Amino acid sequence: LAQPSLSRWSASLDDYFALDELEALAGAYTGSRSAADQLLFQVICEYEGTTRQSVQRVAMVFGSTAADVYERERIGRARYFIERDENDIGTVGQDTVANALASVDSSRLLRTITEFPVAASKQEVDKDVDRKLLQALADPCADTGGLGAPEHGLVYDVQFILPWLWSVVSSGAGADVRRLIDSNALGVAVAALSSESESVRKLAYFTLDVAYGLVTGARALFGRSQCALVLDTLRNSITGRTSDCFPRVPFTVTLFVATSLPIALRPEHSMYAATNRLMLRRPWLRYDEVPLLRAVLRASPEPAGSHEYVLRMASQMSRAFGQCADTFRRAHLVNTVLAHASTALSDVHAGRAALATVFHLASAHNAEPLALHV
Questions:
Q1: Angle 272-281/224-237 helices, nearest 10 degrees?
Q2: Which residues contact 355 (CB under 8 A, 6 or more apart)?
Protein backbone atom coordinates (compact mmCIF):
# COMPACT_ATOMS: atom_id res chain seq x y z
CA LEU A 1 0.00 0.00 0.00
CA ALA A 2 2.86 2.39 0.75
CA GLN A 3 5.15 1.66 -2.19
CA PRO A 4 3.27 3.69 -4.90
CA SER A 5 3.21 6.73 -2.63
CA LEU A 6 6.87 6.32 -1.74
CA SER A 7 7.93 6.70 -5.36
CA ARG A 8 6.03 9.98 -5.46
CA TRP A 9 7.57 11.15 -2.19
CA SER A 10 11.03 11.26 -3.75
CA ALA A 11 10.08 14.39 -5.75
CA SER A 12 11.33 17.57 -4.08
CA LEU A 13 8.10 19.54 -4.73
CA ASP A 14 6.07 16.94 -2.85
CA ASP A 15 8.21 17.06 0.31
CA TYR A 16 5.63 19.12 2.16
CA PHE A 17 2.83 16.63 1.52
CA ALA A 18 5.12 13.66 2.11
CA LEU A 19 6.08 14.92 5.55
CA ASP A 20 2.43 15.51 6.40
CA GLU A 21 1.67 11.88 5.57
CA LEU A 22 4.74 10.71 7.47
CA GLU A 23 3.63 12.64 10.55
CA ALA A 24 0.21 11.03 10.29
CA LEU A 25 1.93 7.65 10.43
CA ALA A 26 4.02 8.80 13.40
CA GLY A 27 0.80 9.76 15.19
CA ALA A 28 -0.60 6.26 14.63
CA TYR A 29 2.67 4.51 15.52
CA THR A 30 3.06 3.57 19.19
CA GLY A 31 6.51 1.94 19.01
CA SER A 32 5.34 -1.49 20.16
CA ARG A 33 6.04 -4.94 18.73
CA SER A 34 2.47 -5.43 17.54
CA ALA A 35 1.80 -6.34 13.92
CA ALA A 36 0.36 -2.93 13.02
CA ASP A 37 3.26 -1.03 14.58
CA GLN A 38 5.87 -3.20 12.89
CA LEU A 39 4.26 -2.55 9.51
CA LEU A 40 4.18 1.19 10.19
CA PHE A 41 7.82 1.06 11.23
CA GLN A 42 8.75 -0.59 7.94
CA VAL A 43 6.88 2.13 6.02
CA ILE A 44 8.74 4.87 7.90
CA CYS A 45 12.08 3.15 7.20
CA GLU A 46 11.10 2.75 3.55
CA TYR A 47 10.37 6.47 3.35
CA GLU A 48 13.88 7.26 4.60
CA GLY A 49 15.48 4.85 2.16
CA THR A 50 13.45 6.04 -0.83
CA THR A 51 13.66 9.80 -0.31
CA ARG A 52 17.19 9.73 1.20
CA GLN A 53 16.00 12.15 3.90
CA SER A 54 16.43 11.64 7.62
CA VAL A 55 13.30 10.80 9.60
CA GLN A 56 15.02 11.42 12.94
CA ARG A 57 13.08 14.54 13.87
CA VAL A 58 9.72 13.03 12.91
CA ALA A 59 10.33 9.61 14.47
CA MET A 60 11.44 11.08 17.81
CA VAL A 61 7.87 12.18 18.66
CA PHE A 62 5.33 9.43 18.09
CA GLY A 63 1.98 8.23 19.37
CA SER A 64 -0.78 10.45 20.71
CA THR A 65 1.69 13.24 21.54
CA ALA A 66 2.76 13.48 17.88
CA ALA A 67 -0.72 14.36 16.61
CA ASP A 68 -0.95 17.53 18.72
CA VAL A 69 2.69 18.56 18.25
CA TYR A 70 2.80 18.21 14.49
CA GLU A 71 -0.53 19.97 14.01
CA ARG A 72 0.93 23.09 15.68
CA GLU A 73 4.17 22.89 13.70
CA ARG A 74 2.52 22.85 10.25
CA ILE A 75 2.17 26.65 10.26
CA GLY A 76 4.74 28.11 7.90
CA ARG A 77 6.17 24.77 6.86
CA ALA A 78 5.52 25.25 3.13
CA ARG A 79 7.81 28.29 3.11
CA TYR A 80 10.47 26.33 4.97
CA PHE A 81 10.56 23.59 2.34
CA ILE A 82 10.72 26.11 -0.53
CA GLU A 83 13.62 28.08 0.97
CA ARG A 84 15.59 25.31 2.67
CA ASP A 85 18.98 24.03 1.62
CA GLU A 86 19.01 20.63 -0.09
CA ASN A 87 21.43 19.24 2.52
CA ASP A 88 19.28 20.35 5.47
CA ILE A 89 17.86 17.31 7.26
CA GLY A 90 16.05 19.30 9.92
CA THR A 91 17.14 20.35 13.38
CA VAL A 92 16.33 18.70 16.68
CA GLY A 93 15.65 21.38 19.24
CA GLN A 94 14.98 21.30 22.95
CA ASP A 95 11.23 21.33 22.39
CA THR A 96 11.49 18.26 20.17
CA VAL A 97 13.49 16.37 22.79
CA ALA A 98 11.01 17.36 25.53
CA ASN A 99 8.09 16.19 23.40
CA ALA A 100 9.95 12.97 22.61
CA LEU A 101 10.44 12.15 26.29
CA ALA A 102 6.81 13.02 26.94
CA SER A 103 5.62 10.60 24.26
CA VAL A 104 6.98 7.46 25.96
CA ASP A 105 5.17 5.41 28.59
CA SER A 106 7.31 4.66 31.65
CA SER A 107 5.35 1.52 32.59
CA ARG A 108 5.74 0.13 29.07
CA LEU A 109 9.46 0.92 29.17
CA LEU A 110 9.75 -0.94 32.48
CA ARG A 111 8.01 -3.95 30.97
CA THR A 112 10.34 -3.72 27.97
CA ILE A 113 13.27 -3.97 30.40
CA THR A 114 11.93 -6.92 32.39
CA GLU A 115 10.90 -8.79 29.22
CA PHE A 116 13.85 -7.69 27.12
CA PRO A 117 14.45 -10.10 24.19
CA VAL A 118 18.05 -11.02 24.97
CA ALA A 119 18.02 -13.65 22.23
CA ALA A 120 18.78 -12.41 18.72
CA SER A 121 15.61 -11.53 16.86
CA LYS A 122 14.56 -14.09 14.26
CA GLN A 123 12.83 -11.31 12.37
CA GLU A 124 16.20 -10.08 11.08
CA VAL A 125 16.62 -13.27 9.00
CA ASP A 126 12.97 -13.92 8.20
CA LYS A 127 12.35 -13.16 4.51
CA ASP A 128 8.54 -13.46 4.85
CA VAL A 129 7.99 -10.89 7.60
CA ASP A 130 5.55 -8.70 5.68
CA ARG A 131 3.18 -11.54 4.85
CA LYS A 132 3.22 -12.82 8.42
CA LEU A 133 2.58 -9.36 9.85
CA LEU A 134 -0.37 -8.79 7.53
CA GLN A 135 -1.68 -12.23 8.40
CA ALA A 136 -1.38 -11.48 12.13
CA LEU A 137 -3.13 -8.14 11.63
CA ALA A 138 -6.01 -9.75 9.74
CA ASP A 139 -6.33 -12.82 11.97
CA PRO A 140 -4.99 -12.58 15.55
CA CYS A 141 -5.34 -16.37 15.88
CA ALA A 142 -3.20 -17.11 12.81
CA ASP A 143 -0.01 -19.13 13.22
CA THR A 144 2.80 -16.66 12.51
CA GLY A 145 5.47 -18.19 14.69
CA GLY A 146 4.84 -15.68 17.48
CA LEU A 147 5.40 -12.70 15.18
CA GLY A 148 3.07 -9.80 15.98
CA ALA A 149 1.39 -11.57 18.91
CA PRO A 150 -1.25 -9.49 20.78
CA GLU A 151 0.86 -9.33 23.95
CA HIS A 152 3.66 -7.67 21.96
CA GLY A 153 1.64 -4.47 22.00
CA LEU A 154 2.53 -4.08 25.69
CA VAL A 155 6.28 -3.64 25.11
CA TYR A 156 8.34 -1.35 22.90
CA ASP A 157 10.11 -2.63 19.81
CA VAL A 158 13.84 -2.73 20.56
CA GLN A 159 14.67 -2.02 16.91
CA PHE A 160 12.89 1.32 17.29
CA ILE A 161 13.31 2.36 20.92
CA LEU A 162 17.10 2.00 21.01
CA PRO A 163 17.73 4.28 17.99
CA TRP A 164 15.09 6.61 19.43
CA LEU A 165 16.97 6.74 22.74
CA TRP A 166 20.26 7.38 20.93
CA SER A 167 18.65 10.28 19.06
CA VAL A 168 17.46 11.80 22.34
CA VAL A 169 20.75 11.60 24.25
CA SER A 170 22.94 12.57 21.29
CA SER A 171 20.83 15.50 20.11
CA GLY A 172 22.80 17.98 22.21
CA ALA A 173 19.57 19.84 22.94
CA GLY A 174 19.68 19.46 26.71
CA ALA A 175 17.49 16.44 27.45
CA ASP A 176 15.71 16.29 30.81
CA VAL A 177 18.02 13.85 32.62
CA ARG A 178 15.56 13.19 35.42
CA ARG A 179 12.82 12.27 32.94
CA LEU A 180 15.33 10.16 31.02
CA ILE A 181 16.05 8.10 34.15
CA ASP A 182 12.66 8.22 35.85
CA SER A 183 10.83 7.04 32.72
CA ASN A 184 13.06 3.90 32.54
CA ALA A 185 14.31 5.00 29.10
CA LEU A 186 17.96 4.81 30.14
CA GLY A 187 17.31 1.39 31.65
CA VAL A 188 16.44 0.02 28.21
CA ALA A 189 19.98 0.81 27.03
CA VAL A 190 21.36 -0.95 30.10
CA ALA A 191 19.23 -4.06 29.46
CA ALA A 192 20.38 -4.07 25.82
CA LEU A 193 23.91 -4.92 27.00
CA SER A 194 22.63 -8.48 27.52
CA SER A 195 21.49 -8.92 23.92
CA GLU A 196 23.00 -11.64 21.76
CA SER A 197 23.07 -9.22 18.84
CA GLU A 198 26.37 -7.35 18.64
CA SER A 199 24.78 -4.44 16.77
CA VAL A 200 22.27 -3.96 19.60
CA ARG A 201 25.02 -4.04 22.23
CA LYS A 202 27.15 -1.63 20.21
CA LEU A 203 24.36 0.95 20.04
CA ALA A 204 23.63 0.44 23.74
CA TYR A 205 27.28 1.08 24.67
CA PHE A 206 27.39 4.27 22.61
CA THR A 207 24.13 5.47 24.16
CA LEU A 208 25.35 4.85 27.70
CA ASP A 209 28.65 6.62 27.00
CA VAL A 210 26.80 9.80 26.04
CA ALA A 211 24.20 9.40 28.80
CA TYR A 212 26.94 9.08 31.43
CA GLY A 213 28.19 12.54 30.52
CA LEU A 214 24.65 13.91 30.75
CA VAL A 215 24.11 12.42 34.20
CA THR A 216 27.44 13.54 35.69
CA GLY A 217 27.04 16.99 34.15
CA ALA A 218 23.50 17.59 35.48
CA ARG A 219 24.44 19.70 38.50
CA ALA A 220 20.83 20.49 39.39
CA LEU A 221 19.73 16.84 39.38
CA PHE A 222 18.70 15.61 42.82
CA GLY A 223 20.30 12.20 43.31
CA ARG A 224 23.01 12.82 40.72
CA SER A 225 25.74 11.22 42.84
CA GLN A 226 23.60 8.11 43.43
CA CYS A 227 22.83 7.73 39.72
CA ALA A 228 26.50 8.19 38.88
CA LEU A 229 27.33 5.52 41.48
CA VAL A 230 25.01 3.04 39.76
CA LEU A 231 26.53 3.74 36.33
CA ASP A 232 30.07 3.59 37.73
CA THR A 233 29.30 0.19 39.27
CA LEU A 234 28.14 -1.03 35.87
CA ARG A 235 31.25 0.34 34.14
CA ASN A 236 33.53 -1.30 36.70
CA SER A 237 31.78 -4.64 36.14
CA ILE A 238 32.48 -4.70 32.39
CA THR A 239 35.84 -6.05 31.27
CA GLY A 240 37.28 -6.58 27.83
CA ARG A 241 35.60 -3.72 26.04
CA THR A 242 37.61 -2.26 23.17
CA SER A 243 36.84 -0.21 20.07
CA ASP A 244 36.00 -3.44 18.23
CA CYS A 245 34.68 -5.60 21.09
CA PHE A 246 31.41 -5.03 22.92
CA PRO A 247 31.14 -7.75 25.57
CA ARG A 248 27.83 -9.18 26.63
CA VAL A 249 26.77 -8.56 30.23
CA PRO A 250 24.59 -11.13 32.07
CA PHE A 251 20.94 -10.23 32.42
CA THR A 252 21.22 -10.61 36.20
CA VAL A 253 23.51 -7.56 36.24
CA THR A 254 21.77 -5.40 33.64
CA LEU A 255 18.28 -5.92 35.10
CA PHE A 256 19.51 -4.96 38.56
CA VAL A 257 21.24 -1.82 37.27
CA ALA A 258 18.30 -0.81 35.06
CA THR A 259 15.82 -1.05 37.94
CA SER A 260 18.23 0.63 40.38
CA LEU A 261 18.55 3.85 38.35
CA PRO A 262 15.02 5.17 39.12
CA ILE A 263 15.43 4.06 42.74
CA ALA A 264 18.51 6.29 43.03
CA LEU A 265 16.20 9.30 42.57
CA ARG A 266 13.85 8.25 45.38
CA PRO A 267 15.33 8.12 48.91
CA GLU A 268 11.91 7.04 50.23
CA HIS A 269 11.98 3.81 48.19
CA SER A 270 12.16 0.62 50.26
CA MET A 271 15.22 -0.61 48.28
CA TYR A 272 17.14 2.69 48.29
CA ALA A 273 19.30 1.82 51.31
CA ALA A 274 19.95 -1.77 50.22
CA THR A 275 21.06 -0.86 46.68
CA ASN A 276 23.34 1.94 47.87
CA ARG A 277 24.83 -0.27 50.57
CA LEU A 278 25.65 -2.98 48.02
CA MET A 279 27.38 -0.63 45.58
CA LEU A 280 29.24 1.31 48.27
CA ARG A 281 30.53 -1.89 49.81
CA ARG A 282 31.87 -3.22 46.50
CA PRO A 283 32.21 -0.95 43.43
CA TRP A 284 31.46 -3.72 40.93
CA LEU A 285 28.92 -6.51 40.42
CA ARG A 286 29.89 -10.14 40.16
CA TYR A 287 28.62 -12.13 37.23
CA ASP A 288 28.19 -15.30 39.29
CA GLU A 289 25.61 -14.03 41.76
CA VAL A 290 22.10 -12.59 41.84
CA PRO A 291 22.44 -9.07 43.30
CA LEU A 292 20.69 -8.47 46.63
CA LEU A 293 18.94 -11.84 46.71
CA ARG A 294 20.63 -13.34 49.76
CA ALA A 295 21.36 -10.00 51.45
CA VAL A 296 17.71 -8.95 51.49
CA LEU A 297 16.20 -12.34 52.30
CA ARG A 298 18.54 -12.74 55.28
CA ALA A 299 18.15 -9.17 56.53
CA SER A 300 16.45 -8.72 59.88
CA PRO A 301 14.41 -6.64 60.16
CA GLU A 302 13.78 -6.21 56.45
CA PRO A 303 12.17 -3.08 54.90
CA ALA A 304 8.54 -3.42 53.92
CA GLY A 305 8.18 -4.80 50.42
CA SER A 306 11.87 -5.66 50.00
CA HIS A 307 11.27 -9.42 49.85
CA GLU A 308 8.64 -9.03 47.17
CA TYR A 309 10.95 -6.73 45.18
CA VAL A 310 13.94 -9.10 45.04
CA LEU A 311 11.75 -12.14 44.39
CA ARG A 312 10.03 -10.43 41.48
CA MET A 313 13.39 -9.34 40.14
CA ALA A 314 14.62 -12.94 40.39
CA SER A 315 11.53 -14.15 38.53
CA GLN A 316 12.26 -11.72 35.68
CA MET A 317 15.91 -12.79 35.60
CA SER A 318 14.82 -16.40 35.23
CA ARG A 319 13.43 -15.57 31.77
CA ALA A 320 17.04 -15.56 30.54
CA PHE A 321 17.96 -18.87 32.16
CA GLY A 322 20.02 -19.97 29.17
CA GLN A 323 22.41 -17.06 29.73
CA CYS A 324 22.38 -17.09 33.55
CA ALA A 325 22.12 -20.83 34.29
CA ASP A 326 25.46 -21.08 36.11
CA THR A 327 24.64 -18.01 38.18
CA PHE A 328 21.29 -19.42 39.26
CA ARG A 329 22.86 -22.76 40.13
CA ARG A 330 25.55 -21.16 42.31
CA ALA A 331 22.97 -18.96 44.02
CA HIS A 332 20.62 -21.95 44.57
CA LEU A 333 17.90 -19.70 43.19
CA VAL A 334 15.07 -22.24 43.04
CA ASN A 335 15.75 -23.62 46.53
CA THR A 336 16.05 -20.13 48.02
CA VAL A 337 12.88 -18.83 46.40
CA LEU A 338 10.73 -21.88 47.16
CA ALA A 339 12.02 -22.16 50.74
CA HIS A 340 11.19 -18.53 51.39
CA ALA A 341 7.76 -18.77 49.80
CA SER A 342 6.81 -21.83 51.87
CA THR A 343 7.46 -20.20 55.24
CA ALA A 344 4.64 -18.88 57.38
CA LEU A 345 6.21 -15.40 57.37
CA SER A 346 5.98 -14.95 53.61
CA ASP A 347 3.04 -13.05 52.16
CA VAL A 348 0.93 -13.85 49.13
CA HIS A 349 3.01 -11.59 46.87
CA ALA A 350 6.20 -13.47 47.68
CA GLY A 351 4.45 -16.75 46.92
CA ARG A 352 3.30 -15.46 43.55
CA ALA A 353 6.80 -14.29 42.71
CA ALA A 354 8.17 -17.73 43.60
CA LEU A 355 5.62 -19.45 41.37
CA ALA A 356 6.44 -17.00 38.56
CA THR A 357 10.13 -17.94 38.86
CA VAL A 358 9.34 -21.65 38.55
CA PHE A 359 6.99 -20.94 35.64
CA HIS A 360 9.65 -18.97 33.76
CA LEU A 361 12.30 -21.62 34.37
CA ALA A 362 9.97 -24.33 33.05
CA SER A 363 8.85 -22.37 29.98
CA ALA A 364 9.46 -23.65 26.48
CA HIS A 365 12.42 -21.39 25.64
CA ASN A 366 14.22 -22.50 28.82
CA ALA A 367 13.57 -26.24 28.38
CA GLU A 368 16.89 -27.10 26.71
CA PRO A 369 19.26 -25.12 28.99
CA LEU A 370 17.30 -26.26 32.06
CA ALA A 371 17.72 -29.93 31.12
CA LEU A 372 21.51 -29.45 31.10
CA HIS A 373 21.56 -28.30 34.72
CA VAL A 374 19.03 -30.57 36.38
A1: 50
A2: 341
Q: How far apart are CA 204 and CA 314, in angstroms?
A: 23
Distance between CA atoms of residues 330 and 250, nearest Å: 14
- Out of 39-43, 48-52, 129-133, least confident range: 129-133
Model pLDDT, residue 10? 39
Contacts of 122 (CB under 8 A, 6+ apart): 145
Least Cα distance to 291 among 271, 265, 319, 269 occurs for 271
The CA-atom distances, in angstroms, between 328 and each of 47, 169, 336 are: 46, 34, 10
* One-character DSSP codes across 18-71: HHHHHHHHHHH---BSSHHHHHHHHHHHHHHHHH----HHHHHS-THHHHHHHH
pLDDT band at 315 (very low <50, low <70, confident <90, very high): confident
Q: Which residues pair with 156 in a beta bridge?
A: 32
Residue 72 backbone zone (phi > 0: left; psi -120 to 50: alpha; other: beta): alpha
Phi, psi of 222 (to 5 degrees): -70, 125
In 3D space, the residue among 9, 168, 13, 12 whose CA is nearest the CA of residue 25 turns out to be 9
Q: What is the value of pTM for the model shown?
A: 0.80
- Nearest-Å Rg of the Cα atoms of the chain is 22
Q: How many CB atoms neighbour CB 33 within 10 A?
A: 25
